[in-house]
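Task: sequence design from structure.
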């Protein structure tokens, strides 16, 4: 692994995106969002995805110049279209608008259709939390997860994000509906490591911790077994209905053609109903109670969602962002 200063990483990604056709202003924002993903330790969804994004621009699946825009609205709810432009830029714009609506109405929602992969979903939870708002957002994906009781994929892993603001301790949960995303499976495989818990099925139909076996069968395990399967299905259908985008069954199985996605961005202004002091008391009391739980391993105490991210962020800003050398070279090649 290399450690690259954050600004250098963002500038390199920006140059690559400009060469792919993005305008300088939009390339700068997209590059910052990408670099922040690696900065926060989510290496599967930062620069690791840039070569795939480049290929999707080249094959016409993503239009680098397309910008999202509103289609219709009703009160605090709006429907937007992404026009199949860069997914992280469309998602950032949708959450920005949801935040604006929430500051006016107490709650705001944007349903975004016809968009591309948003990279790290947690980005938009942090976006809301940093603005002092709570949030819920999710996306559907191409079918890559078998429903409970089936062998073939008919669901997406449909990431779900929940964010709770707090000046010192923002809480941000970012989870997929599969026990491990395929990016995480690839990361374990490339390191020659086994998963910490079973993540899917091997060719014999047995639960396994072997990431390569799960990649071969495409039989990832839903979180909570049938519960994750049901939640994935509900998130997919609701997102498509509200946004007018595609449902999972309408999406191509080829990852290089994964566009037309459906996403929901919900922002809530908690200060509409309570003071900041009241909200902080609740959040900090819950965190303290969690920290007081007796750990199984004293060297690994329990932590709340987002706590590890803040530690990783501070370290990587101080020492440089760790990046895979081969992945970074591909970004440098794209930037040349």
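Answer:
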């Amino acid at each position: 692994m290399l450690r690259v200063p954050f600004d250098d990483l963002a500038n390199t990604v920006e140059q690559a995106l400009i060469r792919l056709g993005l305008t300088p202003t939009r390339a700068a924002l997209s590059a910052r969002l990408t670099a922040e993903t690696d900065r926060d330790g989510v290496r599967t969804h930062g620069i690791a995805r840039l070569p795939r994004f480049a290929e999707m621009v080249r094959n016409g699946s993503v239009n680098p110049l397309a910008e999202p825009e509103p289609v219709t609205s009703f009160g605090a709810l709006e429907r937007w279209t992404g026009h199949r432009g860069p997914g992280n830029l469309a998602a950032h714009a949708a959450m920005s608008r949801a935040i604006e609506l929430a500051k006016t109405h107490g709650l705001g929602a944007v349903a975004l259709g016809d968009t591309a992969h948003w990279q790290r979903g947690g980005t938009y939870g942090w976006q809301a939390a940093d603005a002092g708002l709570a949030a819920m957002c999710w996306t559907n994906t191409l079918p890559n997860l078998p429903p409970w009781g089936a062998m073939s994929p008919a669901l997406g892993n449909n990431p779900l994000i929940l964010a709770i603001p707090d000046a010192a301790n923002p809480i941000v949960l970012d989870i997929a509906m599969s026990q491990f995303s395929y990016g995480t499976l690839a990361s374990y495989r490339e390191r020659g490591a086994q998963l910490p818990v079973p993540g899917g099925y091997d060719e014999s139909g047995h639960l396994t911790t072997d990431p390569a076996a799960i990649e071969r069968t495409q039989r990832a395990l839903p979180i909570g077994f049938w519960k994750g399967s049901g939640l994935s299905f509900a998130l997919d259908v609701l997102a498509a209905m509200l946004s007018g985008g595609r449902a999972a069954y309408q999406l191509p199985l080829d990852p290089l053609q994964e566009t037309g996605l459906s996403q929901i961005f919900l922002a809530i202004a908690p200060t509409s109903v309570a003071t900041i002091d009241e909200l902080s008391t609740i959040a900090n009391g819950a965190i303290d109670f969690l920290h007081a739980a007796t750990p199984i391993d004293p060297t690994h105490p329990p932590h709340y969602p987002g706590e590890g991210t803040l530690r990783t962020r501070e370290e990587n800003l101080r020492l440089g962002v760790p990046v895979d050398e081969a992945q970074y070279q591909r970004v440098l090649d794209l930037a040349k």
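Residues 87-105 form the longest helix (19 residues).
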